[in-house]
Specification:
The chain has a 6-stranded mixed β-sheet, with helices on both faces. A 4-stranded antiparallel β-sheet has the order 6-15-3-17, with helices on one face. A 4-stranded antiparallel β-sheet has the order 5-4-16-18, with no helix packed on it. By secondary structure, it is an alpha+beta fold. It has 4 domains: about 50 residues, no CATH class; about 80 residues, no CATH class; about 200 residues, von Willebrand factor, type A domain (Rossmann fold), CATH 3.40.50.410; about 35 residues, no CATH class. The chain is elongated, with a radius of gyration of 32 Å. Helix content is about 35%, strand content about 25%.
Length: about 400
Amino acid sequence: MLISTVMRPTYKFICFATALLAFLGAVAVDGCAQQVVTPGESLTPITQQNEQQPIRTVTEEVQLTVTALDSRGHLDPTLELPDILVLENGVSQELRSARRVPAHVLLLLDTGGEINSAKRVMLTREIAHRLITALAPQDEFSVMQFNNNIEVLQDWTHDKKATSQILDTKMISGKRARLLDALIAAAGRWTDRPQGNRHLVMITDGVQGAGERVDRAAVFKKLEASNVVVHVISYTTVSRAATAHSRRITRNRDKSIVSDEAVDTLPSDHLWDPLRQAHKPGGVIADIDPERQQQVRAYEAAMRASEKQLTDLTLETGGRIWLPESFEEMIDDGSEAAKLIDSQYVVSYKPRRALVSSTPGEVRVIDVASRRVGLSLVSRRLYVVPARETVQVLGRPRRVKN
C-alpha cells in the first residue's frame, strides 16, 4: 500500500507532462510566423525557405574625416554628435558616431627633377622626419618616393625608429618626377586599409616630369574614389625665387650641385684645390642657352598650374595645402600636418539611400555643416560608393556615444 500511494501522484504528473508536451509540439514558430494545431486538424508544413533563412540586419556606414575649428580658426577638441549636420545629395542623414580613431598616413615624397634647384632631397627628408615623429603612437604610416622610378620605401608600420633609418639611407634623387604615376600607385595602397581616417601627405612642387602621357584629371578622380584625405606641403612658393634666378641671363654663381659630403672626402693634396674652389659660390654665370631658358619658363608655368590643381584637390577631399615661404617653414609644416591629422574626427552615418542600391563608383555630394555657433567644420565634398566587397556588414544598427 505504501508503494501504491507513492506511485499514484507520479503517474498523474507523467500524464500531465505528456499532454503538455504534445500540445507544445503542435505549435510551430519561425520568426514572426506561428501555427497552432487543434485536435482533428492536420499540420500545414511551413516552407523550407522560412525554416532555413535566419533573421539578419545589414547596416551600411559612410565614414567622413572632419576637422573642427573654433571662431579663431584653431582646432576644436570639443566636437560632439549634436554639433554636426551631414547632407548627402541635399538629404539630411542619420548620424551614428563622431570619434577619434588611429590614422593611416601615406607619405608621398617627390625626389625628382633637375630644373627646380630649391627641391632638395635633404629638405624633403627632414620634413618627413618631422611629420612621422609628431604622429600619435597608434597611427599607422607608409612611405613612398618617386623620381625616375616609384618605390615603396616603408610598408605600413607603427615603427618610427625603423622608418627614420630608411629615410636616412634609401632616399635618392633622380632627373624625372613621375608624379601622376605615383598618385595612381598611391591610390592602390588603400585596398586593405579601413575606410575611415585615410590620409595622403605629398611633399612636392606638383610638376610632372617631361613626357606626361597620363590624364591628370582622371588620376585625381581615381584618388578621390579611394575616399582619402589629401594634404600637400608644397615647394611652389619657395621655388619661385630659385627658378627666377635660373631664368636670368647673367646671375651670381651658386656653389656646385655636388654634395658637400662628396667634396669633403677629396684628398688633402693641393692638386684637388681647383675642384674645392669650383664647388664654392662666387663669380658670374652668363646663360646664353635659349632652350634652357624656355624650359625654366615652362616649369614655372607648370608649378602655377599644379598649385591651383592641388589646392582644389585638397579642398575636395577635406585636406589642406601648405605654401611655405622658407625652408624653415616647410620643416615646421611637417609637424603641423601631423597635428592636423591627429586632431580630426571620424563621423559616421547610415545613408538613407542604401549603398548596395548604387553602382560602384557613383558620386554622392556631401555637405557637412555645424549646428553650433562659432564652430566651423571641414570635410570632403563628395563620397564615391566603393565596390561591393568593401561595403561593411555591421549587424544591428546601434548608436555609439562619443
